[in-house]
Amino acid sequence: QLLEKNINEIKDEAKKKEFATTLADIALSNLQPFGRSRLYSQKQEVDLKNNVENRTGTDYYRTLDVTKDVSPDKLKEAFDQKTAELQKDQSEEGKQKLAETNKAYQILSDEANKKTYDTSGVEPTMDNRLITPNVFYIKLDKFSPTTIEELLRVTQKVDKDPGPSALIIDLRNNVGGAIDGLPYFLGPFIGNDQYAYQFYQQGNKEDFKTKVGWLPSLVRYKNVVILVNENTQSSAEVMAAVLKKFNVGILVGTTTKGWGTVERVFEIKNQIDPAEKYSVFLVHHLTLRDDGQPIEGKGVEPLINTTDPHWEKQFNIYFHYPELTNAVKSVL
């Protein structure tokens, strides 16, 4: 009642709105875990949706100074020229521009990535390459609704005989993303209808099963390494825990971030301002790791910790494969 009285005493409507929204946001952000739950404006909700879907506002054609109808040869020529110019600039800004130039070329030089970007503005979520003829490397930056399609496409690209027999899945610095897609993304690694992971809320556990089966282009890999670090977070931590539990591969790196919450946007029935829509971004579940403990605050521990000076010796106990050892060292 005192709070309501104080708000009503503010005569200026703009100041009253600012006070009420700031107070609501502070109250939400102080819920545990601190800073995860927030009050969202309509713009923030749209920004969140675009982020989850990996939609970008960047014009990568402008980045490379080319037009949409550019030929592959002209695109490569523009990329080489831009790269040569930026490599001379060793400032932080120059390095950032070089990284954006590389990303632009990665998107526009791949026919499928270019098509997706042109039609919906969605960026790819993974990079890939053959480190050696026998070792295939996939770097997964985040999860979006297009990630499973990308996985299918990039693994089919090298699914031929002779082809790679070892796979490195790099989840380092993966910020997570669309956790709703994990039952589809994990199925290709562990099979259909498998109890993959659990959510936890107020003493209750909720099981999630995979909804698709093995991916034929993944079956070939008998030696699998999953790289993680202290910046692997959210749904990427869930994936790491599942791959660890099902012995899909060996986790290598450092303990993950420990960001084990699931958030969702909830509508507000009684709006603060009828002229502007607000919603609540709220933590509603915790995720659990392979041993049943919460990921939150604990993270997922690798089987081989690369801070150990003897990690390479431990690695060689699991893999008698010098080519794979050297490939992992080249990307660490």
Automatic annotation (TrEMBL):
Pfam families from the UniProt entry: DnaJ (PF00226), Peptidase_S41 (PF03572)
Gene3D superfamilies tied to this protein: 2-enoyl-CoA Hydratase, Chain A, domain 1 (3.90.226.10), DnaJ domain (1.10.287.110)
PROSITE patterns registered for this protein in UniProt: DNAJ_2
Positions of the J domain: 59-121
Organism the protein comes from: Candidatus Shapirobacteria bacterium CG09_land_8_20_14_0_10_39_12
GO biological process, any: proteolysis
Alphabetized GO MF terms: endopeptidase activity; serine-type peptidase activity
Domain of life of the source: Bacteria
Protein name in the entry: J domain-containing protein
